[in-house]
Amino acid sequence: KGMTVYRDGSRDGVLISKDEKKKETNAFTETAAPKRPKTLEAKIIRFNNNHEKWLAVVGMMNDKPYEIFTGKAEDAFHLPNYVSTGEVIKSLNKDKSKRYDFRYKDKDGFNVTIEGLSRSFTTEFWNYAKLISGMLRHGMPLKYAISLVSNLELSDDSLNTWKNGVVRALSKMLPDGTKPKNTTCTECGEDDLIYEEGCLNCKSCGYSKCG
């Protein structure tokens, strides 16, 4: 039987050399974030962090976290305990600067709008939240975003407390059974950790850590 040999480049799209395959594997792909609509559905996550009550507002797009704002509940706006969902609305001030408002429905079904999310949280927390939101909207897998935030080395105690709060909030968004990135159990050393209801649980020894 006859045999046909193709030289690299002689049949574009038919044969791919090993070097080309390697280049594809090592490709560094840039992403473009989907355009934010004026209004995003949002989830409210409440949790305790160092014995303090914290609140997170997570804007969702296609059932995935798109942006996150979080801080101490006492520093944030007043929100009734029954509110678990709402909308984050991108608005313009008179001077054309941008702001984010939060809207929810009260018990009677009427809309209640709280203007200026940015002034409801500490400035430092807000600025870091914008960075993390940028990672989320550009498609960083959630477990990698959690790993990155949890490994931040911050000298300020309040920022470390905030960091733990962000990790706790984002962890609650992970599907049960998700394995963390490059993490082994601190108790038994096994690589058998999974996320369940926002907590990191070891299936080997029963160790559990929330946040």
TrEMBL record:
Record bears the keyword NAD: no
Its EC number(s): 1.17.4.1
Keywords on record: Cobalamin, Cobalt, Oxidoreductase
Cofactor or coenzyme needed: adenosylcob(III)alamin
Entry annotated with the keyword Glycoprotein: no
Classification via InterPro entries: RdRp_reductase_class-2
Protein name: Ribonucleotide reductase of class II (Coenzyme B12-dependent)
GO molecular function terms listed in the Swiss-Prot or TrEMBL record: cobalamin binding; ribonucleoside-diphosphate reductase activity, thioredoxin disulfide as acceptor
Class of enzymatic activity (EC top level): oxidoreductase
